[in-house]
UniProtKB/TrEMBL annotation, chains A, B:
Name of the gene encoding the protein in the UniProt record: yvcK
UniProt-recorded name of the protein: Gluconeogenesis factor
Principal location class: cytoplasm
Entry's family note: Belongs to the gluconeogenesis factor family.
One GO term of the biological process aspect: regulation of cell shape
Its job: Required for morphogenesis under gluconeogenic growth conditions.
GO molecular function: LPPG:FO 2-phospho-L-lactate transferase activity
Localization of this protein: Cytoplasm
Protein transport as UniProt keyword: no
Keywords recorded for this protein, A-Z: Cytoplasm
GO cellular component, one term: cytoplasm
Organism of provenance: Salinicoccus hispanicus
Species lineage: Bacteria, Bacillati, Bacillota, Bacilli, Bacillales
Source organism, top-level taxon: Bacteria
């Protein structure tokens, strides 16, 4: 039997968490990952080697590995000795493969084979782009890590150089998927950066698979403060030039009383479900009372098992409907 | 059915070549590898990080991998940029694991899991020893790579520090093996260094498995010039303090006319089969007219397929004899 093909689109930790949950199901997972990150150690290595950002790629490879903890430790290891640099070993491994193959997507594929990574990890673009944002006041901020820092309303994000092209591997994954999942993750700095390389918008627009957006549970400082679920979806559709999302997975439980003060102090609130506007955009709402996991300290996140279960159910239903239609 | 357990003992390229040949058979392979090498890039990294020699370990891991060429390229990769050092990436990976685990044998085991290496690669000792040789004139040469350079007759080799202990993993492999294969490889700098860490001699002496020595085809400059097959075996037995080898695999074809001038110029001749003396030492001779591979330029080596086939046959026969005895 042909396995269901699921493509995840995102970056940051959100994508890794979902990949880890889905790994347990009999599905073919591809993950299209943003490579515009310029913060932390990824920023440091990009200063020395002009390459797409390795950090999120590493995290997803780790999440799809059978020896997850071991690989995570190896990837994260930094030599103390000055002579060997302060680089994370995983970044060096990706840099080495990139230098040998001259193609970042091929480098990720080859390293994935060596490390016996299940699924396919695909950088959204093969060059080393910068993410830029135009704010409501028309000011331009360049650099993924700087965008949330100005704490202004974002109108649009784009890549520099302007003609950054999507990897053929990413386009192919989109074309062949039964289900395409956007998120969870930072809206403007993890998800949308994958949609804007040339060729991607058209591929997603034409793709036969069903498109699912996983809304964040909390709004995010410097990116989505005050945003409802429909505002999130609207940002995606605006960058896509059309309504593309078939299903939106969101939380409708009242969690106000259980979240930590950290959120209140930073104007971060639960993302509100505005079903009417979502319906107007053509997105069917899917929710589950077990979707949110709140730990003892009031930190909020998706329950990755529940999220994976929901996505697998959507995929199964859709596949059987399609077979029935034939 | 329990798989036949074969342990290879050696170093250098000989061990890798045999491992590659045996990988195709349904056997459990362990490889005990000498870590006293101090030449080339291995020497350079040992100058900066006090660790057992990673080079031969890497080669055997590669030979036991399903993605051999890819892993070989990644391991061998060196960054051109000064800031990232001139180190082979594989040495850095082993150094990182060694630093994280504090135990070289565990480091090799963990990295093998991450890289999905079949079989078990075991350093013969966990510390960073130097190999020393006492020559016929009682002079002492320290450093594996220097020993062959003096081109004198070697009386004995030993490790510094003197109390270097064998890894428990190596002892266990010896105890549990159905077949233990010594060589092919440099007699004094690849094979014997594995026999001298404390605990090894006793383990091999008591081991129930059959012991096979694969004789080199050509004598080796600075190590075994003028040696017959029995002289090779005698060197092993002398270091072991007893006769331990049950079978010796050697070449008896006349290859004189087919070898390159390089050998003649360096006093390297075909190793002579002196069956009477071998018999006195308790070793049964096994030979095959296809054992030697000579390329168009007259370079001589073992045919790794034939060698693996011979060893697998010995193992099968021995196992069935043992079952019959029970």
């Amino acid at each position: 039997m042909k396995k269901i093909r699921i493509t995840l689109v995102g970056g940051g930790t959100g994508l890794s968490v979902l990949a880890r949950g889905l790994r347990k199901y009999p599905v073919d997972i591809s993950a299209i990952v943003s490579v515009a990150d310029d913060g932390g150690s990824t920023g440091i290595i990009r200063d020395q080697i002009d390459m797409p950002a390795p950090g999120d790629i590493r995290n997803v490879m780790t999440a799809l590995s059978d020896v997850e903890t071991k690989l995570e430790n190896l990837f994260a290891y930094r030599f103390k000795k000055e002579a060997l640099g302060g680089h994370a070993l995983g970044n060096l491994m990706l840099a080495a493969m990139y230098d040998m193959t001259g193609d970042f997507a091929v480098a990720v594929k080859e390293l994935s084979k060596i490390l016996n990574v299940k699924g396919t990890v695909i950088p959204s673009t093969n060059i080393s782009p910068k993410l830029a944002a135009r704010m409501e006041d028309n000011s331009i901020i360049v650099g993924e890590s700087y965008i949330p820092e100005v704490k202004q309303k974002i109108e649009e994000v784009y890549l520099i150089p302007n003609d950054t092209v999507a990897t053929p591997e990413a386009i192919e994954a989109i074309e062949k998927s039964d289900v395409i999942v956007f998120g969870p993750g930072s809206l403007y700095t993890s998800i949308i950066p994958n949609l804007i390389p040339e060729g991607m918008k058209e591929a997603i627009g034409k793709a036969p698979g069903i498109k699912v957006y996983v809304s964040n549970i909390m709004t995010q400082i410097g990116e989505t403060v005050g945003y409802s679920a429909a505002d999130h979806l609207d940002a995606i559709n605006t960058h896509m030039g059309q309504n593309v999302i078939d299903f939106i997975i969101l939380n409708e439980e009242d969690i106000k009383g259980r979240i930590s003060d950290y959120y209140n102090r930073n104007d971060m609130t639960a993302v509100e479900s505005d079903r009417d506007r979502l319906g107007e955009m053509g997105a069917t709402v899917i929710t589950d009372h077990r979707l949110v996991e709140i730990d003892g300290e009031g930190a909020v996140r998706h329950d990755n098992k529940v999220l994976a279960e929901i996505i697998y159910d959507i995929a199964l239903k859709e596949i059987s409907t399609l077979q029935y239609k034939k």
